[in-house]
Amino acid sequence: MFFYDAVSRWKEIEPHLEDEEFQRVLRDDFNRFTWGRWRKSFPTKDRPLPGDWEGYNGHKGRYLGPEGPYRRYVLDLACYWLCNANLRLATLVLPNMKWRILFSRQNHLVWNGHDTLFDLTSQALYGDPWVAWEFAFGFGRELAPGEYLPVKYAEHFEIDLARQRNGTPYGRCPWCNELATGKCCPEYRAFLVDEVAA
User: Fold this and answer.
1) What is the CA angle 43-81-102, rounded to 5?
2) What Å distances lie between residue 178 and 76, 147, 172, 189, 194, CA to CA?
């Protein structure tokens, strides 16, 4: 298993970063992360790329992969909100390959169906394509070549913090302030089903 090397081949990737569809997918999907998490729109003037934001768990991540400008397009624990952008970029850079998304609860990545991963996030975080592959492939699912993953909103940080304080898998429901098991309010159930990434 190999990474399409985003460091040594950055010059091949860079011209496609202004592609209209890539920009749309990146903006729409990553906005679902920033808006869901903090009620802030993406991009902002001072944070125009995913790497300019804090990660899902409050930090920017412990990256084991190589340094390079590609890291501005990655963020720790945000692979779910970046995999469609990686798919679009892969189809622009290497259009003759049948790129598809492979995902599990641990990782989302882009794969050519054979031996190559085009995944900026995994390359930055893991540095090892086999580690990225194992996280995504174990109990994972594979989409059809070129198919985007439906992306939902991230969970709001207050619910996440309440869950950690309670020591339970649930936070407090924002509608009734009871323990948010998803069974308390119909509005919260709908929010979990329609808006929050599972």
Assistant:
1) 150
2) 30, 39, 5, 13, 20
